[in-house]
Design a protein that fits this description.
alpha+beta
Length: 141
C-alpha cells in the first residue's frame, strides 16, 4: 500500500534505489531497521517492544535495529558500527523530528520498506522472508 502523509501504515518499494551510503558498514552482512522516534515516544516504544519480543527471529534474519534520536544512533539490537546520525537521517530522507518512521534496509543497502506506524515482528519477518536473498539463505540451511 502506498504511504500517504498521515494514515497509511507502509510503503513497499517496487524497485531498489541507491544504496544508503551511511549504512555501508552493514553492506552484505545485515538487514537494518532504522527507527526515528515520535515526539511522545509511544509508537517508538511499541515498535521497539514488538521487535525485541522476538530476538531469535531478528538474529536468524541478520537484522540490526537502530534508533536515531537527538543526533545519535543507538543500537537496540546488534551493533551500531559507528553510524553517523545526521548522514543516516539525510540518506533516508528522515521525517521531521518528533514524527515516527521506520525503514527496513536490505543487505544490498537499499531501502526495502518504510513504515509510519509500528508493525509486529511477524509482519517484519514476512517482508524479509519474501525477499529473494532471504529465500536463498533459507534454502542453504
Amino acid at each position: 500500500m502506498l504511504k500517504t502523509e498521515d494514515t497509511t501504515k507502509s510503503h513497499e518499494n517496487d524497485r531498489d534505489g541507491p544504496a544508503v551510503a551511511s549504512l555501508a558498514p552493514f553492506l552484505w552482512e545485515s538487514r537494518v531497521v532504522v527507527i526515528f522516534p515520535d515526539k511522545d515516544n509511544a509508537r517508538t516504544a511499541r515498535q521497539e517492544n514488538q521487535l525485541m519480543a522476538d530476538r531469535p527471529g531478528l538474529q536468524e534474519r541478520d537484522v540490526v535495529v537502530l534508533k536515531v534520536a537527538g543526533g545519535t544512533v543507538r543500537p537496540l539490537f546488534g551493533a551500531a558500527k559507528d553510524v553517523n546520525a545526521e548522514a543516516l537521517a539525510r540518506d533516508l530522507a528522515a521525517p521531521p523530528p518528533g514524527e515516527f518512521m521506520a525503514f527496513l534496509v536490505g543487505k544490498d543497502g537499499t531501502v526495502k520498506f518504510t513504515i509510519g506506524e509500528p508493525i509486529t515482528a511477524a509482519e517484519l519477518f514476512a517482508i524479509i522472508d519474501a525477499m529473494p536473498r532471504r529465500a536463498g539463505e533459507t534454502a542453504r540451511h
